[in-house]
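Go through this:
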Amino acid sequence: MGSKLYRLFEYLYLVAAAFFAYETVVHWNTARNQAYLYLFFVVIAIFMFFFKRSFRKKMNNRK
């Protein structure tokens, strides 16, 4: 059960990245500073997806 929950949270980071990417495109011409902030969140969410995935795989290999 725990592994499935961790995997769900991994993909929620991708959903968040897609949402912030959409917000970046929407606000690019009107509020450029806000668009940069959303772009930063996209990068962080993608990083967290790969970090959490590698951490979960390491934990599964230990078991």
Remarks:
- The CA atoms of residues 18 and 42 lie 7 Å apart.
- The longest helix spans residues 32-62.
